[in-house]
Amino acid sequence: MKRLLGLLLIFSLFTVTAFAQSADEKAIAGQVEVLRKAMIAGDRASLNDVMADQLSYGHSFDYTQNKVQFIDALVTGKAAFTKIDIKDQKISVDGNTAIVRHKFIADTNDNGKTNSVALGVLQVWKKINNKWQLYARQGYKLPNQPK
Questions:
Q1: CB of 74 within 8 A of CB of 90?
Q2: CA proximity to 85, closest of 112, 101, 114, 107
Q3: Cα(10)–Cα(27) distance, rounded to whole angstroms?
């Protein structure tokens, strides 16, 4: 009987852990979607809310921006997205840190110049004050894409 209770306790702990991780994955996926929509809309309040103050945003064409620089570029239209699709997303959670990888397919209109991009993206999300926020992001060119 003690063995059965012990096995049930261990199984319960694994089940609780699995559900907690699943809840975090859902929360992070929701934040990725908030970020996607806010980038298209140039929504300063939503962008500010979903990103950590320490954000390091790496672009595929070899430059980085902090939170203020990235938000300002989106809000002013210097960098504008008209469409963003996210494909093949994978989320891995480890405590208060998560890694998100996906393909980022987008149409842009930067200062009147339209373009399409297809990138691989690595994002690092951090749980800050019980809320998942984007902490770091790096885009990279996918194979067979123009340089």
A1: no
A2: 107
A3: 26
- The domains of the chain, with CATH numbers, are 2-141 (3.10.450.50)
Phi, psi values for residue 94, rounded to 5°: -140, 95
For 57-104, the pLDDT digits (tens) are: 999 989 999 999 999 999 999 989 999 999 999 999 999 999 999 999
Distance separating alpha carbons of residues 139 and 62, to the nearest angstrom: 9
Q: How far apart are CA 114 and CA 47, in angstroms?
A: 22
CA dist., res. 27 & res. 50, Å (int) = 12
Cα–Cα nearest to 89, from 35, 19, 20, 144: 35
What's the one-letter identity of residue 26? K
**What does the block give as tokens for 47?**
């962008």
The SS3 of residue 57 is strand
Contact 103, 133 (CB under 8 A): no
User: What is the CB neighbour count within 10 angstroms for residue 22?
Assistant: 11
Backbone φ, ψ for residue 119 (5° rounding): -130, 160
The structure's pTM equals 0.82
